Amino acid sequence: MSYIIEYVKTDENSLIKQAQKGVSSAWEELVYLYMKDAYNFCLKLTNGNHNDADDISQSAFIKVYQNLKDFRGDASFKSWLYKIITNLYINQCKKKKPISISDLPADATFLSPGNERSRQAGIKDINIEDMAEVKSNDNSQVAPPLRAETGEMTELIKNKINLLPPQQKAVLVMHTYEQMSIKDIAETIGASYAAVKMNLSLARRRLLKELKGYL
Amino acid sequence: MKMDCNEIKGLLESYFDNDLPDEKRQEVEKHILECASCKEELEDLSRLEKLLHSVEFPSVSEEALQSYPQQLKSRLFYSLRQKRITRLVFTGGLATVAASILITFWIYLQPKPQPEIPLIVVEEKPIDFVLLTPPISDKVNKLLTSYASTNDESLQNDIEKKIIEDIGDKALNTLVRTLDKRFSYYITTKENYDKTQSLALNLINKLIAKNNNIAHNDYLINTLVNLLSEPDMRTKSINILAEIAEPRTINYLIKYVDEPNLAPVIFAGVERMGKSVEPYLVRLLYSEDEQIKTNALRAVSYFKIKSAVPTLVSQLQNRKLRPILIETLGEIGSPEVVISLFELVKDQSLKPVIDEAIRKIGPDCIPYLEPYLTAIDSGMKCRAIELITNLQDKKVVPYLIAALPERRVQQSVSKTLQQISGEDFGIDQQKWRQWWYKQTSPKKPLDKNSGITEPDETM
Q1: Residues spanned by the domain of B32
Q2: Domains contained in chain A, CATH given
């Protein structure tokens, strides 16, 4: 049985070639194919900020449109798109002032494990059950159970990731949440293998330090 | 050589990422069994990874994605426009300096500036296709697929009915996309392509017949315009475009006016477009494409578009087009063009067309010809007399009688007078005058016969 509108799954390369020839519908198809991935990737980079994700992903697609002729196909289209997104994100971070503690959500401060005193102060503000749980965890020698399912813990981790320098954050997000290998990340952001590894390692060390009490 | 704890610590992350050669890997594994601190560090890494994986980031909702292409489209348009404006401002700045120098020279060199024909750029290309296609409906797609894959007529009829009645207007965008040539490279067989295209055209026609409001859709109009280049689809597309009657499409429809079967449909469409199409048609008269220009002239002449007269007159300088321009001016029938036409009377080759045009304009042009009837230049005078002779109208009689002494035209004038009046006074101006006087003077209330009958009635 043949299909008319059930389009044959055209491979990426032919779409790109068509788009490079100026067939804007092919560019359109690329947008349709990747808009979800691109948007979600941006959401991770921007800590779930829809406005920023919208802005960065759209700017990236416009850059794709403008520079499609220069795309040589050395890496995959997705890598190229992610590279553009990462660069846009890093540039945006440079433009924005560094995030101060007061910008963080309230619960992020009282759950900060690095500072035992503030943590104690924070616990006073949350309900008795939570307090009991934390206390019992503190008393036991085993690692406390993961509590990411509770909203506060998720928020805490997200905030810690968000405080990483942009380069480290981008590498961590790609590695952990986009399941990309170090080699792929290096190709995507146009950095050396060693540089990606270094960034990933720095990000992990920092998070290990910051989240030590919750591991 | 056995590695120490610090060296192993440096390799732990690579071990964790599965990024070590076998030899070193084994060494790390061996070390971990013995060293609690390194083991703890590795476990920390693993716990951190688990903790990070347990976090879920929000993902974009399908609803939000629906409006995404539209927003992207507007942003792209905006950015392209900004780019163009920047370029214009930059090149515009340079151009202004250059132009002011040139203009100064030009004014200096030209004692009398020549009047110029206004330059109007005709839009030859369809609206730019940066437009993103609207979202398509899977339901309609599936129905179209089943239609193409079956030869069972009753099933096909059912599908048509379902699309028209159940889905209705919402099916339009998907149907249009079927016709969109930009997506043809996706489609597997030519036969199925033709079949669905033809079905889509039929269905669109029916949908529009049902609800004309949906027709003014740029995507639909652009796609139909692009189909015009395909001979198989042309007639149907023209039918729909004529039904939609969007004035902007005249640029494309006009190309097919010389095809006898399409002309009536196109002209019906143009008629539906009404007055708003006139400026578009007039612009086409400036087209550099001879065929488009000639066809536009045909339309202007068919609809007697008076607003085209100044353009037509200004183009009379073009020798090649003169005959058809004069013919068109005659069809439109604006008497004031006679003055412009009369400037061309010395060109003998144009004689038949000018005669015909003036005959079509009719007696309204007499006031404009009158000055020439008493011209000193006898050539011009005779030509003017000849022209009014051609009118064969009672209104020209006094002018003809006045022209009788002119020897060169005497015979033809007298002949025309005979034809108009049914009388024959030869070339005797005096007799013709008396006759005309009798014709125009008020009739006496009673003649001899009526005088006799009146008493009869009283008897």
Answers
A1: 5-49
A2: 12-95 (1.10.1740.10), 107-146 (no CATH), 164-215 (1.10.10.10)
| pLDDT tens digits, B241-264 | 988 888 888 888 888 888 888 888
Q: How close is the nearest chain A Cα to the Cα of B290, in Å?
A: 29
* A207 reaches B (C-beta below 8 A): yes
Hey, are the CB atoms on B60 and A40 less than 8 Å from each other? yes
- pLDDT at A129 > cutoff 60: no
Domain boundary among B196, B214, B244: B244
The closest CB to that of A48, out of B44, B57, B71, belongs to B57
pTM of the entire structure? 0.45
A8 to chain B: which residues are within 8 Å by CB?
A: 186, 188
Query: Which long-range contacts (C-beta less than 8 Å, at least 24 apart) are formed by A42-46?
Result: A42/A85, A42/A89, A43/B57, A43/B58, A43/B59, A43/B60, A44/A173, A44/A177, A44/A178, A44/B57, A45/A85, A45/A86, A45/A89, A45/A169, A45/A170, A45/A173, A46/A89
Q: Which residue has tokens 């207007």?
A: B169
- Domains in chain B: how many in total? 2
Residue B138 covered by a domain: yes
Q: Which of residues 165-204 of A touch B (CB under 8 A)?
A: 172, 176-177, 182, 197, 200-201, 204
